[in-house]
Amino acid sequence: MLSLILPTYNEALNLPELLPKIRSVLSQVPHEIIIVDDDSPDHTWKVAQELAEKLGDVHVIRRIGRRGLSSAVIEGFLAAKGDVLAVMDADGQHDTGLLAKLHDAVRKHGGIAIGSRYIEGGSVGEWDERRYMLSRIATKMALSLCAVKAKDPMSGFFALDRNVFEEVLPRLNPKGFKILLDLLVHVPKSTSVTELPFTFATRRHGESKLSRRVQLEFLEYLYDVSIGNWIPLTFVKYCIVGGLGVGVHLTAYLFFSAFLAHGLPLSLMGFSLALLGAIETAIIFNFWLNNVWTFAYAKLQGFAIIPGFLTYNFACAFGALANYAVSTYLYSHGLGEIVSVIIGACAGIIWNYTMSRMFAWKNA
Length: 364
Ligand code: GDD
Ligand code: MN
Description:
CATH class of the largest domain: Alpha Beta
Strand content: 5-15%
CATH superfamily of the largest domain: Spore Coat Polysaccharide Biosynthesis Protein SpsA, Chain A
Largest sheet: 7 strands, mixed
Bound molecules: guanosine-5'-diphosphate-alpha-D-mannose, manganese (II) ion
Oligomer: single chain
CATH architecture of the largest domain: Alpha-Beta Complex
Radius of gyration: 27 Å
């Protein structure tokens, strides 16, 4: 039996055209259709439920408070009864005529059968130059990571053996759009891959959900499954934030010192005040960016931000103290203010790093 998953987000206009087509091309193949909708604002789930009543063996999963193509597909696979699992876009871009062939290919060879745009006979159809180039580059980068190779590892149109899915499931990363790529990265090397050509049609109604954010998630994913095995992405992000924080620290210092000096040479008191203001500004900046970017997956929201921010200040306190002590010492001994501020910031970083190595990660 074939279980076909249709992930949907705002496809209310497309489903009524697509479902009867699927029904007719699969008239000879025992199958079920599972629509996984992320509570679309256009009420796709409702349209799907109405169609399900009419057509039979159509199931609708309406996920509340969740988003993501890959995770929707995985959830659909998990609810499926079939021994062959398949997925296609619900917007008419994938050729329904290929469904029975993908099913046959998996029955015959096992493994994965891909609807491919990049083999002889297939094409991306009417794409602009930019999307074509982006897709080619993404495909090239992705290929180097795959355990088994395919010409179109980014296709959203494929079928696979249920056993293959169940075997790789614990290793899958459900972020973003790249469900097929993720399968190809994690399946055993001996998995059979068959590619069948098709032409990527234009969307019937609505627009693509492949946003810049999804593209960024894709790059993060490539990092995660390659260099990320040795240097975690969060650590790299944390270092970038720290680097930017030094820039913010210096800029804030210049701002506060100009404000306090009124064009006169800065007293030690004025220097100290400007420095404290700059240190706290950098702490606020680092906290904000780490919260929305580095640790976005565990982002603090609402009132939880307050205790989070206070704890963060406490964690930074010793580094901040080292920063403050070194800067004011140098400045009071006649060194230029900018140089004092920069060396102080470096001292803070080194202090934080050394303390972390000595106490928090003793065995690092
Ligand atoms: N449930 C759910 N949740 N479905 C989603 C979501 C989501 O967050 N985002 C997109 N979908 C559904 C869409 O409604 C559509 O049916 C299908 O997933 C594909 O999304 P599109 O927005 O149509 O993507 P695309 O056409 O730009 O991208 C296609 O080509 C890419 C390669 O070029 C897809 O097939 C991708 O999977 C493929 O990587
Ligand atoms: Mn599409």
